[in-house]
Specification:
Blueprint: E1 8-14, H1 20-31, E2 34-36, H2 39-50, H3 57-70, H4 72-89, H5 94-106, E3 110-116, H6 119-127, E4 131-136, H7 139-144, H8 149-152, H9 155-158, E5 173-177, H10 183-197, H11 199-202
Helix pairs in contact: 2-3, 2-4, 3-4
């Protein structure tokens, strides 16, 4: 297991439509972080398999991005099935190793994960001295934001729901209930958490 020499790692836990990507992008803007996603290597593999043949890797990546942009809900089950097959047949850490290899190669100073969904993803972040921000919301809130019952029932959406991070005693973890909160209110809670827990690493 390789550990890159990065200054700060933050993982955002939450179900679909809980605000993970919005929060990660804001952290990127404010703290100049590099945003990583465990889903990126999944998309690369699926896209290059889909557009195999005379397409180079980069061309296939671009074509897949355009295809997914136009057919996101249709292709979501394809991505999930591919990802789960790799996890079950090869290794539960298959995608974790992929994305951390990318981090090791790029060696950024500050990293934020916008899609922590499984316990091994979370533990790898903590093993690297990182911090966890968990966004929780009711099913009603998530469905109002565009999710659906089928999506929320998937393993990738439920694996960390019952996880206990012991936020009260662990300064590296915080849970924020986003029900009824504005984007700015959520950001204020995260900003305070970073200021109290990791201010020296962000300076």
């Amino acid at each position: 297991m390789r550990f890159p020499q990065i200054m700060l790692v933050i993982g955002i836990v939450g179900r679909t439509k809980s605000g993970k990507t919005t929060l990660a992008n804001r952290m990127d803007y404010v703290y100049d972080t590099k945003v990583f996603s465990h889903a990126t290597p999944v998309r690369v593999e699926v896209g290059r398999a889909w557009f195999k043949g005379n397409n180079s890797g980069k061309v296939a990546d671009t074509k897949w991005s355009l295809l997914e942009m136009e057919n996101k809900e249709i292709l979501r089950p394809v991505l999930r099935s591919w990802a789960e097959a790799r996890r079950q047949i090869i290794s539960s850490d298959y995608w974790v190793e992929k994305v951390w290899d990318d981090i090791y190669d790029e060696n950024p100073k500050r990293v934020v994960f916008d899609d922590v969904r499984y316990p091994n993803e979370l533990l790898r972040i903590l093993d690297n001295g990182g911090y966890i921000v968990r966004l929780v919301a009711s099913d009603e809130t998530l469905i109002e934001r565009g999710s659906n019952e089928l999506s929320l029932a998937h393993a990738s959406e439920t694996s960390l729901i019952q996880a206990t991070l012991h936020e009260a005693t662990n300064p590296k973890c915080i849970t924020i209930n986003v029900d009824g909160k504005t984007e700015n209110e959520v950001w204020g809670a995260v900003r305070d958490f970073i200021a109290n827990a990791v201010v020296e690493e962000c300076s």
